[in-house]
């Protein structure tokens, strides 16, 4: 038996049914006995929606009014009546089982399943299997129009059925015509058999994805604007009614390892993907979600993995994955199992634990845990921020794709290269950073944090032509974020004065920017970490700020830093060397490197290897071009330190450690010879700063 089903919402009709998230307001159905070609009673039920504001199209097509719908039953009661009336009609016809049959897939997939999911009640099993009359019709009549172009009216016209839509109520005509089409398909000329119904998955299935898989780009979408705490199950619920491929939800992480509110979702076929695109700007809670097309390559980049260990860990199907963060580095599997306790048993015991490690085997403090059911996972999440050893542990929901991403991050790139390409510090002559007292520079204060070089040049207007090459310097704070300040070297003091007069308190985007004339010495002092205010100059802190373009992708470009500061960061000082120190009074020759976009100076010495949502930073290196490295290799360098390996690196410091604690730790040791800075060409002011706090060499 079939139950022919038709419905309408308070909004769009036809091909856009369900695309506007409007609620169901009408259900019409009739039972059809396929074997005996009999029908049951035709039923029509109005549904009371939470929002009775009907669209103009709905009013025109259906003839329904808010007043009439206000007296109807809500959806859950109507669906109960539906089940009872269908069972009664089946008994009359002497049948016991049935399958739904609808005009297309929109009513089932785009209306009933999403709405009941949002209203938190379950649909009966009969709504997870149905026949699409349009597909069945095209199978029976291959010469008819394409499936996507079919409607009830076009199918009836193709068969020459003489039905008048105006003579029947809205919904009644549609069901009667669908029944007539079905009987025509069952006639002796066709003898159509309904054998392969459409199915709707009851739940999302997790699973691993290999980078060697082939993913059809016509099956992938990108969802944007997700709440950061949303899980793969939340995303599957948003797309309720559509069939997501196994392991097809991949939450995206940003460069800091935080979830960035995006996810890539892979569906079983292109038809499901096209239906998903119709949910653009549908809501998840109070947030609307944007849905766009994506590619298979993008999905594999996020969700694909190559590790056999991860594949084995994720091979257990239908498991809930929890992420643990902040584990002590000495934590063992027994420690984690003891922390979780008997109330949340781990699937497979130790086999259900996956510790995340660096390529050299050191632990990162992260681990993933498998639980067999939602109850055990909820019990584990209750232990969020409880203590293990001397550290509190954070627990979050996770996904198979996130496991792959995190392992890929740690295993693909070593934390610190064993033999990094050396940094070549140089400034192309003759455009060095000025150190004199001539006031040929200007300081911009109060820049928008999103401002870039192009914004500054536009802000300067005609004065752009008076800027020295390499003369724009963006200042970042100690966290590597834009500080809102920038310095610009002009060709003369007069030009700097004119710019300060013309551009002071001029608007950039939605903020006014202050412009002050200053000297190169003052500019250099601030770039080295000091402060410049109305009280004068304050010495730099113990830590150099980063000088960088506002785009954080600048890590791949060669480093260019001031020569004075560069002496403190020579590769020979950063890495132990086997060279025999050779004292020399001559300054080392410089190796010139012009970056691709030499619009400013920048010095990045920090690289992030994140662990969501936050993790420590570590010293990294920026590779110089091969030509520059070759030139540097043939040059004779003046040794910076009196003997190899005199500089040590401290790892594992508490985040609140200050310089006093570090100096106290090394109490009793001579941590810097007095003549260290004598090897460097410095101004008197900079030398006094370096000599006063010895912390400079403990950086």
Task: Describe this entry's structure for a reader.
The structure is a single chain. By secondary structure, this protein is an alpha+beta fold. Among the domains are: 198 residues, Nucleotidyltransferase, domain 5 (2-Layer Sandwich), CATH 3.30.420.10; 87 residues, RRM (RNA recognition motif) domain (Alpha-Beta Plaits); 98 residues, RRM (RNA recognition motif) domain (Alpha-Beta Plaits); 88 residues, Alpha-Beta Plaits, CATH 3.30.70. Helix content is 27%, strand content 21%. The protein contains 22 helices and 26 strands. The strands form 6 sheets. Strands 1, 2, 3, 4, 5, 6 and 7 form a 7-stranded mixed β-sheet that branches. A hairpin with a 2-residue loop joins strand 11 and strand 12. Helix 6 crosses helix 7. The C terminus is likely disordered.
Tag the structure with descriptive keywords.
22 helices; 27% helix; mRNA processing; single chain; Alpha-Beta Plaits; alpha+beta; 7-stranded mixed sheet; 5-stranded antiparallel sheet; 699 residues; disordered C terminus; Nucleotidyltransferase, domain 5
């Amino acid at each position: 038996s079939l139950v022919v089903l038709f419905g309408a919402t308070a909004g769009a009709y036809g091909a856009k049914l369900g695309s506007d998230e409007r609620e169901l307001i009408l259900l019409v159905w009739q039972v059809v006995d396929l074997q005996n070609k009999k029908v049951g009673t035709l039923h029509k039920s109005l549904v009371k929606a939470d929002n009775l504001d009907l669209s103009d199209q709905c009013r025109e097509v259906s003839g329904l009014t808010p007043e009439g719908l206000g007296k109807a039953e809500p959806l859950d009661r109507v669906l109960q009546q539906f089940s009872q009336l269908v069972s009664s009609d089946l008994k009359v016809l002497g049948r016991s089982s049935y399958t739904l049959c609808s005009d297309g897939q929109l009513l089932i997939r785009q209306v009933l399943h999403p709405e009941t999911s949002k209203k938190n009640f379950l649909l009966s099993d009969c709504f997870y299997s149905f026949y699409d009359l349009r597909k069945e019709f095209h199978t029976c009549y291959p010469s008819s129009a394409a499936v996507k172009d079919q409607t009830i009216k076009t199918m009836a016209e193709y068969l020459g059925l003489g039905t008048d839509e105006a003579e029947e109520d809205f919904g009644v005509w549609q069901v009667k015509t669908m029944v007539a089409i079905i009987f025509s398909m069952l006639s002796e000329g066709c003898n159509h058999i309904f054998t392969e119904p459409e199915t709707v998955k009851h739940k999302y299935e997790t699973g691993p994805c290999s980078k060697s898989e082939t993913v059809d780009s016509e099956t992938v979408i990108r969802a944007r604007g997700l709440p950061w705490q949303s899980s793969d199950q939340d995303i599957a619920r948003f797309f309720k009614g559509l069939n997501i491929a196994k392991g097809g939800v991949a939450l995206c992480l940003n460069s800091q390892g935080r979830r960035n509110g995006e996810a890539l979702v892979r569906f079983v076929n292109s038809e499901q993907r096209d239906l998903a695109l119709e949910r653009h700007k549908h809501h998840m809670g109070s947030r609307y979600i944007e849905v766009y097309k994506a590619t298979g390559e993008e999905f594999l980049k996020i969700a694909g993995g190559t590790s056999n260990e991860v594949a084995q860990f994720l091979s257990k199907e239908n498991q809930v994955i929890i992420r643990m963060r902040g584990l002590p580095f000495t934590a063992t599997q027994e420690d984690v199992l003891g922390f979780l306790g008997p109330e949340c048993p781990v699937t497979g015991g130790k086999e259900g634990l996956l510790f995340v490690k660096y390529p050299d085997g050191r632990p990162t403090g992260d681990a993933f845990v498998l639980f067999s059911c939602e109850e055990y996972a909820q019990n584990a999440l209750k232990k969020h921020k409880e203590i293990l050893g001397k550290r509190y542990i954070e627990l979050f929901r996770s996904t198979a794709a996130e496991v792959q991403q995190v392992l890929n991050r740690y295993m693909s790139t070593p934390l610190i290269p064993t033999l990094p390409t050396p940094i070549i510090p140089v400034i192309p002559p003759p455009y060095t950073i000025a150190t004199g007292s001539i006031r040929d520079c200007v300081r911009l204060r109060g820049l928008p944090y999103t401002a870039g070089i192009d914004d500054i040049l536009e802000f300067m207007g005609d004065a752009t032509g008076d800027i020295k090459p390499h003369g724009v310097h963006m200042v970042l704070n100690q966290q590597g974020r834009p500080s809102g300040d920038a310095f610009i070297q002009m060709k003369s003091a007069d030009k700097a004065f004119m710019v300060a007069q013309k551009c002071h308190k001029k608007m950039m985007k939605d903020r006014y920017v202050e412009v002050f004339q200053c000297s190169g010495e003052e500019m250099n002092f601030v770039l080295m970490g000091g402060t410049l205010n109305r009280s004068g100059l304050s010495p730099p802190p113990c830590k150099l700020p980063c000088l960088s373009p506002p785009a954080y992708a600048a890590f791949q470009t060669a480093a260019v830093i001031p020569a004075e500061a560069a002496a403190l960061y020579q590769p020979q000082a950063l890495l132990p060397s086997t060279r025999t120190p050779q004292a020399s009074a001559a300054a080392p020759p410089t190796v010139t490197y012009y970056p691709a976009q030499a619009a400013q100076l920048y010095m990045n010495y920090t690289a992030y290897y994140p662990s969501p949502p936050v993790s420590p930073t570590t010293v990294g290196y920026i590779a110089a071009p091969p030509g520059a490295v070759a030139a540097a290799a043939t040059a004779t360098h003046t040794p910076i330190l009196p003997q190899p390996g005199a500089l040590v690196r401290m790892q594992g410091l508490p985040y609140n450690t200050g310089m006093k604690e570090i100096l106290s730790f090394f109490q009793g040791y001579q941590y810097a010879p007095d003549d260290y800075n004598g090897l460097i060409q410095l101004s008197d002011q900079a030398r006094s700063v370096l000599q006063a706090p010895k912390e400079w060499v403990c950086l």
